[in-house]
Amino acid sequence: MASSAIETDGQEILDLEKNRQAEKAQWVLNAPEPPSLWRELMDSARETVLPHGKRFPYLKDKDGLFKTVISVLQAMFPIFSWCRHYNATKLRNDLLAGLTLASLCIPQSIGYATLAKLDPQYGLYTSVIPPLIYAVMGTSRDIAIGPVAVVSLLMSSMVPKLEDPEANPIAYRNLVLTTTFFAGIFQAAFGLFRLGFLVDFLSHAAIVGFVSGAAIVIGLQQMKGLLGIAHFTNKTDVISVLQAIWRSVHHYWNPHNFILGCSFLSFIILTRFVGKRNRKLFWLPATAPLISVVLSTLLVYLTRADKHGVMIIKHIKKGLNPGSIHELQFNNPHIGEVAKTGLIVAVIAITVGIKQFKSILHEKYTKSTLLTFILYILLLCQMQEATAVGRSFASIKGYSINGNQEMVAFGFMNILGSFTSCYVATGSFSRSAVNFSAGCETGMSNIVMAITVIISLELFTRLLYFTPIAVLSAIILSALPGLVDPHEAYYIWKVDKLDFLVCIGAFFGVLFASVEIGLLAAVIISFVKIIIISIRPGTEELGRLPGTDIFCDVNQYPMAVKNSKALVIRVKSGLLCFANANFVKEKIMKWATEEEENDSKGKRTVQVVILDMSNLMNIDMSGIASLLELQNNLASGGMELAITNPKWQVIHKLRLANFATKMGGRVFLTVGEAVDACLGAKMAAV
Amino acid sequence: MASSAIETDGQEILDLEKNRQAEKAQWVLNAPEPPSLWRELMDSARETVLPHGKRFPYLKDKDGLFKTVISVLQAMFPIFSWCRHYNATKLRNDLLAGLTLASLCIPQSIGYATLAKLDPQYGLYTSVIPPLIYAVMGTSRDIAIGPVAVVSLLMSSMVPKLEDPEANPIAYRNLVLTTTFFAGIFQAAFGLFRLGFLVDFLSHAAIVGFVSGAAIVIGLQQMKGLLGIAHFTNKTDVISVLQAIWRSVHHYWNPHNFILGCSFLSFIILTRFVGKRNRKLFWLPATAPLISVVLSTLLVYLTRADKHGVMIIKHIKKGLNPGSIHELQFNNPHIGEVAKTGLIVAVIAITVGIKQFKSILHEKYTKSTLLTFILYILLLCQMQEATAVGRSFASIKGYSINGNQEMVAFGFMNILGSFTSCYVATGSFSRSAVNFSAGCETGMSNIVMAITVIISLELFTRLLYFTPIAVLSAIILSALPGLVDPHEAYYIWKVDKLDFLVCIGAFFGVLFASVEIGLLAAVIISFVKIIIISIRPGTEELGRLPGTDIFCDVNQYPMAVKNSKALVIRVKSGLLCFANANFVKEKIMKWATEEEENDSKGKRTVQVVILDMSNLMNIDMSGIASLLELQNNLASGGMELAITNPKWQVIHKLRLANFATKMGGRVFLTVGEAVDACLGAKMAAV
């Protein structure tokens, strides 16, 4: 009697358990309909353009018109925020930082202008207007704005295809200015319409490879100045450049240039070592380029070395930026090409300016622990509006870098730059680091720098007449090692082999073809990688983890135990689609039948194949057709197919295709339930 | 005392539970290293090329040399298998089917040859050699081999770009034969090296769209014959063709052709209805084209209608296929283009031949229940070797279609075809259906058909002199409705909107541009779709299903309950990479901080963010960097980040990047454990 009561109890529990399982299976089958494609598209578009619902959250404060205007102005021109709390101490620090910055900026600007195949003064112009505008509109205080090496290389490798800088320098310059205008427009548009994610399409690995390759190309370009070569190639790939150098060295070779360049290069590198040893002497490496320029100019002037073949800058036009709004070429037949170049330059300038800068900050402050914390907060807020989030962290962070506002600032500085004879400016890697080390407090250091450059333009251009080009080359060369990053490349290799492929694709593309091909290679490899990972037809067998009801990959968790009668399989990709469905089907069939084969050796008999769908984000028509075939194939072999944990989109499509009914209800929430239910049913049938 | 004992017990159980959880977390963290990229590549290459380990499984039977040779021959030439059991009954059925097939094949072949811009006899040639070779080497018994409409259209739209068929018909024909040769080489290579998966890259939706578009284009091309237009356009897009028709109709219009064509078209369609009503009259629709040809030829001959503007075939060259091996043009300057065309034709021919055929089988037998079962078995075995699997199902299936052997057979029939004046042949949709309805038993029906065509070529070509072209057009037109499949298109629309986009992309591409652009559009949309689905930066919040420890999407399972202190989030894509990592990070931050915002209204305070990684197949450098930023951002907001159930590749990379240690051990196997552990720790801290 008692035992029968227990049995009844057991039966009841079993029934209860069964009912619960059935209920859970119903949950899976009767999920509400997922949002339609159209609604999803609209939602994601809205989220992209309006990440926090409102453009100007200050408006809700209802503090009257005046305060509202002030708030809007503060959001658009962050200078209004920080200048209210500006004081003498900050000014002193900014003055020091700005002057240090200017001493590095002036020789670099001249060098980068020659790299971009423009007259030297255009580099100086670019160090005037963009930093001033950035100081007003930008949100970062450490970034130093001006011409940079990678963007200058980009200009000198893409624009000369449209106009020869030697044959027609004015037309070339006008195209460069037009490109700058377009770059500015694109950057401002990215910021205003929150399209910053487009910049994400250049992955970290691609940037590392691209910048390293560009640095080497830039270095090789400097051989022109360092060796005093008059006629150089217009191409940027390593082979053409090396050929040009080889040819020149054989025909014409002036050791004076080389000796001068190398000695000052050694000097700059030496000061850098000294600066690293003694943190107090941080100004020494920063001012070394200016000291080199002054010393070498004096040297050439005194020895009249220019008569002996040392190449010098000669004339630099005196005076402030001339207006250039009428020089923009909108009727040019190459306008499409120019706009394309503008887009590429815009993306690279943002990437180099914001992203690289982010990474140096990151590097620097893993060392100085106090600042780490503050700077992570900056990064945290980079992509967020000055709303609730911004406010709730305001007490810790002091200020926030706003990604979209940054892009708007970059855009405006380049648009207005293109009206005032500037080419594309962005955040410089080497100068931002100097700015930070010099202890800048606000954007004022950029203003100080710009004013210093203005004074130089007005007063000192004639003094630069005898500056040897070899020393400019040495200055550019000395800035390059910071761009090549073998450690990061090794780290990428260690963690992700395919990402490393992207990295070296960009690197060799830039090195042996052109900057465009390098970028294209990186983007294509990145997307091919996504496709390969998404459609690779891998499957894994799952086993039960001892003591749990959890099923895991038996390779990842060697302690997992396979079921002797149920083959539990999970697809190793997020998509079951035309490109992998057939393969997966085949593989599962092979697995099921091979396992069965081993039966004769007394191993196992598969009665149920359970397909865990928890990985699958989506499925297409071919995927559904394959599942159908799989089920029929298994059925004809006397096996059953069950599916578990299909995601929203998947179960929705399976329902639409009537697959769920064709499965005969063998749809479960968890693998454990599927195993119990299917094997239980089989047992009962026997 | 007692209560303290209970407490101690409770404490012990708690400790035990904690130990178990710690052990499980260790399982996650100490997973063995996943196979390297190189090993994975090698494994998948080996699996692709050698899906079942051995090429000829028969070899292991150790039955002596003779039996081995027989087995190998049987594997390569399935005819040896079935002809051993051949008998008179089967022959009678095959004879009937073959003759029915021939009566449909002869008019269709002539029509398709004119569609391909070749002389009529080339269509007949193509119905001789390829079916004979297929009968020897192919594994399917229902398929009817010969020229088909879609491939003929492909030829006439791609090859004329290289050589004008009107100006230089012989050079054009030679290029068509060379294309056929290349198509055969590619098909045989696909089969021998098991590259059939390349054909999968044309998804089901793409084929439906492409074939429907092609059918409409073919139909419009037939207006030439139906209206008796002498000068037609070489282009295939709808607009050019409609313009050509419009122009011709205005200038020259012969109602005799049109009336003749339309009356016989009506006749053929009528017989089809009769055939559908009365299954015994299946031969009526199959022979209607031949009847039409005979009647119309007689009519034209008797009335001498050709004198009144009715266009007739005129001369068809008598006699068997001439050799054409010397006509292949390997020194042609367009050889690269020809090879490319060959590749496209090869893929389309396989797709149309095998895949479409698969789908009619599927359609047909959902109606006749008995055969359904058998035919699913065929499909089951389509991609499998005649090994274990094949053998274990041998008793049910009777025979198996072997995908790779099929492709080899297709390849050889086209290679040998190109040596004997045939252009590309494949399985015909309409004729295969007729062959099946007529009750064919083996590949013998193809042989019977080929012999009938040979006899016709030898004896009856002169009788076709007066056959009106309008009737040929009517016959082609009558075969088209089977190719356009609005039901399938609607089904695709219903189940998968993006797949429908692929479908209409192919459809409109073929219709308004060209067949190549249609195919290209389909392939590109398909892959863009994969990329979009893989990188779309969706996230979903998880809640606990009542009465379980399972966490599910709160939208899919509305009964799931959110935790008030833990925000459980899962990424809705299989990859966390450069293209979506930033977005996902931002979204999670927004979520976490917005949830916190609602605190003032008394809703919830997020203390822990748990990121369920069970979806993620892989992660890249940018993804890892984003996770790191996310953790630091959350930490500065006083929240904790925990991750659960990372997959093999993901945990491996996180370990390499030292992220696992930076997480401070907050890596768990299940969401439930993570919630308990994190909130428990928080409680203890309070």
UniProtKB/TrEMBL annotation, chains A, B:
GO terms for molecular function: secondary active sulfate transmembrane transporter activity. The chain crosses the membrane at residues 64-83, 95-113, 133-154, 175-195, 201-220, 258-275, 282-302, 407-426, 438-457, 463-480, 500-528. It is found in: Membrane. GO terms for cellular component: membrane. InterPro entries: S04_transporter_CS, SLC26A/SulP_dom, SLC26A/SulP_fam, STAS_dom. It is a multi-pass membrane protein. Its main location: membrane. Keywords: Membrane, Transmembrane, Transmembrane helix, Transport. Pfam families: STAS (PF01740), Sulfate_transp (PF00916). Residues 557-678 form the STAS domain. Belongs to the SLC26A/SulP transporter (TC 2.A.53) family. This is STAS domain-containing protein. It comes from Populus tomentosa (Chinese white poplar).
